[in-house]
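User: Run a structure prediction on this.
Assistant: Running it now.
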Amino acid sequence: MNAPGPDSRVVIAVGSGFLGRTLARHLAATGCRVTLLSRNRPVEEGPWSFLDWDARTLGDWANVFDRADALVNRAG
């Protein structure tokens, strides 16, 4: 498995907590475009986009996977 490179699109499911935000900052620093999916908006702004996600129903968030190069699934 290769690590995501510059301009990679990475989705982090359940990424608004401490670990998700820390990973998002690291990936963004390497040039990745990061999207966080979560029920809760992160407590701070950062180098990511955020989409509301309840892990139960389809919504606009589902389209982010069509363009993703990698997924980090932190959902239980």
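The first helix runs from residue 18 to 29.
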